[in-house]
């Protein structure tokens, strides 16, 4: 059977692949410690579930406007005003079927074949593939330890060409767990002034920040930034609603209208009763539930980074956001561990899983082969056990 070249060129998601292999081993009764998860290990708060049940009982089971019900887009506009100091009308917001869908649809709406997209590495695995699916080309900016894995204004300036259509900013970042400071973002925004470069600002981890880290929306930096930015966010991470598939994009009216047109043919509206639950999610009890989760993640971030740094040959910056550690393990490359030759992050992850039964995600698909990603969206006990195994395996 024929499949399209387009489909053939897209590999399966590496993060989903490692989770699948770990689950396969678990199903065989193997005691695997999973650091692969991209989902908070907390349940969706009850008040959100109750709102979904009530919406179902009230018959909210039919199609809605393709871009989402106006009540939800109004609630999102109010959230963006209150928390992010951003002025968007409901017409400037489209509710998507998860943040991943927001990314895909945004790329489809603003990119043409031949366009270039600047993508700082490490990047979330979905960006390069959605850029490719829009016929555009990713121009990767490689970052490193010395710059805390963040791009500099000089690097950005040197990468912009006449073909540059978009810059992807993801802060707090997956897989790095790092966050740009407001000053760093301002310097980036300054470089873009006078260019036609749009920005996709993926702010899905905004609530999960640690220590004295400050979060600011890219579009809130200046009027110039506002006019060129698509602000992307969703309910998956902050409200532990990964399975509900609810994301959203806010931005210049023309771009959002284009996304809405595409959505009206691709998927139509996000699940109707879920949209009502999303309105509830943005309501008052939210802050308390989110803060509880954030505090727990902060504790784990500290513990995991400290433990990783105490293992010989591992260097791990303390995460300032999201729920990932992204240590550099490259000093172990070239070794032979129990018969497995470790020449990069793929070998490292595979051998660790098969020999020590610890699942983590190789850095290669995130654009950083020196590193591996460990999610701390799992219990403290699992973190301790998994890191014990990792330490013993490397010794
Ligand atoms: N952006 C980033 C950076 C992510 O890590 C994720 C989830 N892995 C998403 C967007 C999308 O999440 P969802 O589709 O569940 O809303």
Account of the protein in words:
The protein has helices spanning 5-8, 14-27, 46-57, 70-84, 99-110, 126-133, 153-159, 182-192, 223-228, 253-266, 272-281, 286-310, 345-356, 380-394, and strands at residues 33-34, 93-96, 116-121, 137-142, 164-170, 198-202, 229-234, 247-250, 324-325, 336-337, 340-341, 358-359, 361-362, 372-375. The protein is α/β, with parallel strands linked by helices and 395 residues long. The strands form four sheets. A seven-stranded mixed beta sheet has the order 2-8-7-6-5-3-4, sandwiched between helices. A three-stranded antiparallel beta sheet has the order 9-14-13. Helix 5 (99-110) packs parallel to helix 6 (126-133) and helix 5 (99-110) packs across helix 10 (253-266). It is globular, with a radius of gyration of 21 Å. Bound molecules: 4'-deoxy-4'-aminopyridoxal-5'-phosphate. The site of 4'-deoxy-4'-aminopyridoxal-5'-phosphate has 13 residues, from helix 5.
Percentage beta strand: 5-15%
> How much helical structure, as a percent, in the residues?
40-55%
Structural class: alpha/beta
For the biggest sheet, the summary is:
7 strands, mixed
Number of strands: 14
- Report the principal-axis shape: globular
Based on CA atoms alone, the radius of gyration comes out at 21 Å
Question: What distance lies between the first and last C-alpha atoms, to the nearest angstrom?
Answer: 48 Å
Low-confidence stretches: none
Give the averaged pLDDT, no decimals. 95
Order of helices and strands: HHEHHEHEHEHEHEHEEHHHEEEHEEEH
